Amino acid sequence: MRRNALELEVFAGQEKSELSMIEVARAILELRGRNHEMYFSDLVNEIQNYLGTSNSDIREALPLFYTELNFDGSFISLGDNKWGLRSWYGVDEIDEEIIALEESDDDEVEPKAKKKRVNAFMDGDSDAIDYNADDPEDEDAYEADPALSYDDENPDDEKNEVEAYDAEINEIAPDDLGEDVDLNEEDDEFSEDDAENIEE
């Protein structure tokens, strides 16, 4: 059932075809008022009803509209894809709502069941890689091997790190090189003759 077209006095006398979805969204939210935030899908339906746009045109315009909604400073996402106007909320209120949302998330102990996604392109293709498949390394319950962890405060970890470094150096240059190795310190210096040769 389609509702009667919404009338927005802000756009009286203007061609609806010349209006952007973002302008109409702002006007709809302003008309509804502060305590009447809207879900994204409901907002899009209201815009479509007002503009009289076809389903295919709306689907084509959705990516740009969603991007503009996120980047336009006058809109704010209130979670669960619910949108309102930023002007409705003071800075303190926004912070409080975010904190309250985080606290309510911490209270939830039971994880939500994951929905099984179906990929139409993978049906029957046994060689295809399912990138949506759960990877055990991605799980929250994954715990790192304590032997591989490093603690800056633990002197034993520092000692182990130095010993490992020394072992690597000894693999490259063993201690039994003897006194036969001559280091010519002049080779390390960069002379003016070298600079002239490089410039040529």
How would you characterize the overall build of this protein?
- The protein is mainly alpha-helical.
- It has a domain at 9-107: RNA polymerase, subunit delta, N-terminal domain (Arc Repressor Mutant, subunit A, Orthogonal Bundle), CATH 1.10.10.
- The protein has seven helices and three strands, in the order αβααββαααα.
- The protein has helices at 21-32, 40-51, 55-71, 91-107, 155-172, 185-188, 192-199; strands at 38-39, 75-77, 82-85.
- It has a three-stranded antiparallel beta sheet.
- The radius of gyration is 32 Å and the shape is elongated.
- 6% of the residues are buried.
- The model has no long low-confidence stretch (mean pLDDT 72).
- GO terms for molecular function: DNA-directed RNA polymerase activity.
- RNAP is composed of a core of 2 alpha, a beta and a beta' subunits. The core is associated with a delta subunit and one of several sigma factors.
- Residues 19-88 form the HTH HARE-type domain.
- Belongs to the RpoE family.
